[in-house]
TrEMBL record:
The gene is LOC107743821. Keywords: Transport. The keyword Transport applies. It holds the Pfam family Lipocalin. InterPro entries: Calycin, Fatty_acid-bd, ILBP, Lipocln_cytosolic_FA-bd_dom. This is Fatty acid-binding protein, heart-like.
Length: 125
């Protein structure tokens, strides 16, 4: 059920994000900004059941709207054009991005009232 994800989530900590961005192929200058940015993630669901996830920071705001289990085109915060599918798997929102023969996943779950997001590319998390 996606209801538990609905709300505004504030980033408090980030670990190994620079290594993840390197694996994605993000350039040095963008990584510097990305490492200092602590965006809010706003999750909502509209009347038709479409999910909206908005990442808001002073640096950049990105927004995606999607239905579970349906692929869509996404322009990521680092300007990659991906084909993305979001599924609900064992209570986790799993966002799978593919582009140029590469693949990345972002798993989000709510634990003890906190949203935990784990980004993975190859063997980097």
């Amino acid at each position: 059920m996606v209801d538990k994800f609905v709300g505004t989530w504030k980033m408090t900590t980030s670990e190994n994000f620079d290594e993840y961005m390197k694996a994605l192929g993000v350039g040095f200058a963008t990584r510097q900004v990305g490492n200092r940015t602590k965006p809010n993630l706003i999750v909502c669901v509209d009347d038709q059941g479409q999910i909206c996830m908005k990442s808001q920071s002073t640096f950049k705001t990105t927004e995606i709207k999607f239905n579970l289990n349906e692929s869509f085109e996404e322009i990521t915060a680092d300007d990659r054009k991906t084909t993305t599918v979001v599924t609900l798997d064992n209570g986790k929102l799993v966002q799978k991005q593919t582009w140029d023969g590469k693949e990345s996943t972002i798993e989000r779950e709510v634990t003890d009232g906190k949203l935990i997001a784990v980004c993975a590319m190859k063997d980097i998390t």
